[in-house]
Amino acid sequence: MFVKAKGSLIYGESGKEYIDFFAGAGALNYGHNPEFIKDRLIEHIQRDGVSHGLDMYTDVKRRFIDYFVEHILEPRGLDYKLQFCGATGTNAVEAALKLARKVKKRTNVFSFMGAFHGMSLGSLAATSNRDSREGAGTPLNNVTFMPHPSGPLLYLDTIEYMERVLSDDHSGIDKPAAIIFETVQAEGGINPVSEQWLRALADLCVKHDILLICDDIQVGCGRTGTFFSFERAGIVPDMVTLSKSISGYGLPMSLLLLKPELDQWKPGEHNGTFRGNQMAFVTAMAALELREMMNLDLLVKQHEHFIRKFLETNIKTVSDKIEIRGTGMIWGIDLSNVEDSGIPKQIVKECFANGLILETAGREDQVIKILPPLTIEQSQLERGFKILNEAVHSIIAGSSLLTTH
């Protein structure tokens, strides 16, 4: 029973301290209750600032939009309109898919095996996880899943496969309105794609008049070392979905970025009661200021260097059956080649008992997912990895998996 949280730490009712390597599934990039952001929120409440504004213009909404355009979009040469979609990430995905189909007048969408895009019906249709899909209780249609370059069909050139599907008048697959993708499949098991693959995907969409939608909900807002995870490839998606850490404080906020020519909504055609969380505007504005004050991208790169080196030196060397994947501050320890499928859960349980919070992801939950707050102190980062390292060695030591390097 958790009762308090600060920075990268969560405290239980007993007073026990836990290091958070989960970070609200990516919603807490700035950690728990960061002072700079908290003070702005308290000030807004104390002055009786607008708490709920529907789609009306407010001072905090204007300040956020102006700052986001000036400090995030313009320096990157990006020209996007902003649409506030509602409380959570799936709302932004729903808006993107709905708009893509409206603009292109096609019903099909391409998604990828291993993808996670949300739990409402439209975005769930683009989510590949069987357990999640079974919860729908109704057919999930109008999405075709393409092989992902990290998936079980590793021998396949996935871009070439899509090219042939789109060019073959006997493929039996309808041309999509859009292709939705993640630069790093997070829930899918920490599967980053290469810059070359991203550029090829963007070129494919241009060639076939297909909209490209980047789902940056979990790996955006600085998680990979740049504000948008697609920046490293130099591409410009037609639409980008943001949520989770865009508010900077764990408050509900969902944002769709779209190229101006795609704004073909009729007035009120896609609305919602909470598509303008005033408190989130306040904290989101403060978060953007804080990331600049901290030089957060540089900090993430420094943390990434430590994480990569630690995992390769201390974890990967435990067994040649262990695979390490990741970028920035999202990493996975893949144990899918280990004979005992229960080992990942055992390691996570052992870590929790020793004061470290982690989760599993990927096929059959065989990947241990590492997702600390971007602002974590180096000492806490090192302490968390010490706990993880001890758990991995404790669970695996003595088994047939242990190898000497």
Automatic annotation (TrEMBL):
SUPFAM superfamilies: PLP-dependent transferases. Coiled coil: none annotated. It comes from Paenibacillus cellulosilyticus. CDD domains: OAT_like. Belongs to the class-III pyridoxal-phosphate-dependent aminotransferase family. The keyword Transferase applies. Keywords: Aminotransferase, Pyridoxal phosphate, Transferase. GO terms for molecular function: diaminobutyrate-2-oxoglutarate transaminase activity; pyridoxal phosphate binding. This is Diaminobutyrate--2-oxoglutarate transaminase. GO terms for biological process: ectoine biosynthetic process. Pfam families: Aminotran_3. InterPro entries: Aminotrans_3 (IPR005814), Aminotrans_3_PPA_site (IPR049704), Dat (IPR004637), PyrdxlP-dep_Trfase (IPR015424), PyrdxlP-dep_Trfase_major (IPR015421), PyrdxlP-dep_Trfase_small (IPR015422). Its EC number is 2.6.1.76. Pathway: Amine and polyamine biosynthesis; ectoine biosynthesis; L-ectoine from L-aspartate 4-semialdehyde: step 1/3.
